[in-house]
Amino acid sequence: MTFGQQVPATPRIAVLAGTPQLVRAARTLGIDTVFVHDAARPAPPVAAEADTALAVDLADTDALHAALAPLHAERPFGRVLSLTERGLLPTAALAERLGLPGNSLHTVGLLQDKQRMREILNARGIGPVHTAAPRDAADLAAFCRTTGGPVILKPAAGTSSQAVFRVAGPQAAEDVWRAFEAAGGTQPIAEEYLDGPEISVESFSYDGKHTVLAVTDKLVGPAFVETGHTQPSALPAPVLAEVAALVHAFLDTVGLTEGPAHTEVKVTGKGPRVLESHNRIGGDKIRELLRRAHGLDVVSLTAGCPFGLLRPPAGPPVARRGAAIRFLTPPPGTVRHIALPDTGGTTAEIQLDVAVGDLVRPVRSSQDRAGHIITDGTDAADAARVCEELAARVRIETSG
Predict the structure, then answer these.
(1) Which ranges carry the ATP-grasp domain (predicted)?
(2) Looking at the predicted structure, is the pLDDT value of residue 188 above 60?
(3) Domain assignments of the chain as residue spans, ordered by start
(4) Is domain 12-102 annotated with CATH 3.40.50.20?
(5) Is residue 114 within 8 Å of 276, Cβ to Cβ?
(6) 79 phi and psi, to 5 degrees?
């Protein structure tokens, strides 16, 4: 839809497995919402905030179509939307069945299959990376010998840094393969290890045109789980320009046409390389970092731009401030005592995901972290400094 095109007085959307922010943003913009949640789980509180709420098996496209097609016939939806990982594929499948605009099922499926995505990028020479799909530990060892260096083993459809392992060489293949399976890894893919800083790129697409909104510097722990994010990136301008060009080419290649995308990138000595991407806003409170540093509400853009209610970004925004988040990773064990620092004089917020008596596990996925501190500052360095000073004063005492 061209911006400013005439739309019905009250647009209507279906939101699948949506975040509360998406439902609230839509309603603030005067968009009617039909919220669809998983029938196998209790209705989330946000269901009461939607105009209509339905409980449907989100994995069953036929059931989704049967539930929503009559509503669409009575009063058409303008879009089916979701900003949660589990809702992206059902959203694309349902939109296709209803004949609605949006990112195609092919594109969304490609973003969720790292092996297929890598094969297409390699075939087109876009940030090529050596890759393989090992069937067992022997295949993994053979790939290590082919690359001549360490490799990464990960699930083709993985999220939250779960079951991601570094394989030092052929001699480690057997042990890593067992650890991968024990961690619940499936559909294994192996890629050459990419050295260099890791960043993420938030973008917004409209009518097939992409705008980079922000580049985030990442801190990554030994198990490839993020321990912090800072905006805007401190990388030199020429490197950021190269990253932006790569992300534009990548999004064109996978066929993304609208909405947010979160693309993870390694900046190597041979240039930037895409690790993975998702047609949603980044997790780990990156949505909040965008608001604090750039004054952007990407959730509202997602709901409003398709109907001409909000203008899409005309170009990369200039950061007004810096913003940072640091995750809390206390030693594994049972929590015995918690003490938090005073945040007075800062804009920081502290959130704990553990309480006294809870078990803290070794950090092998994002869900294993114990909480976070988020703040903004005069610039990125100031925000990071405040965040890290406060994190150092958090006391989460554990015992084995």
Answers:
(1) 118-307
(2) yes
(3) 12-102, 130-192, 195-320, 324-399
(4) yes
(5) yes
(6) -155, 155
Contacts 24+ apart (CB under 8 A), 107-112: 107/254, 107/255, 107/256, 107/257, 107/279, 108/279, 110/254, 110/255, 111/254, 111/256, 111/276, 111/277, 111/278, 111/279, 112/88, 112/157, 112/278
Confidence (pTM): 0.92
- The class level of CATH for 324-399 reads alpha beta
CATH of domain 195-320: 3.30.470.20
Give me the sign of the Cα torsion angle 376, 377, 379, 385: negative
CA 47/CA 49 separation, integer angstroms: 5
Rg (CA), the chain: 22
How many other CB atoms sit within 10 Å of the CB of residue 390? 20
Tokens in use for 124? 């087109």
Q: Nearest to residue 383, comparing CAs of 231, 254, 239?
A: 231
Q: How far apart are CA 273 and CA 247, in angstroms?
A: 9
Length of the chain: 400
Cβ(284)–Cβ(198) below 8 Å? no
Query: What residue ranges in 94-182 does DSSP mark as E strands?
Result: 131-132, 151-155, 165-167
| CATH architecture of residue range(s) 130-192 | 2-Layer Sandwich (3.30)
What confidence tens digit (pLDDT) does each residue in 63-92 have? 999 999 999 999 999 999 999 999 999 999
